[in-house]
Fold this protein.
Amino acid sequence: MTHRHNYKTCPLSDDDPAITVELLSEIMSGTESVKVIGTWMNGPAHEGYMVVEAESFGDVHRLLAAIAARGEIITVAVTDFHSVAELTKQLTKVAQSTCLTFAE
């Protein structure tokens, strides 16, 4: 995920940035249902990056709700490559057994 804000909504511009940084630290630690793989910041650009693992996007949404109003959050859902490879094998078998072909 990428979170972008501007200098006006930057947590360091808050009246008490220490409280905000504490809240951000809690978010960056994740929850029982959202495992945080890693977090990174580009301070001068006012951008934060986060990689998480979760079964439900709703859980991710709840985790990020507190910072969503500060700027935009861009999420990109990805799937493990091996899962995609296995699915491709299964689909190929189904296509071959039913005489279907994939368009080139």
Observations:
- The longest strand covers residues 34-42.
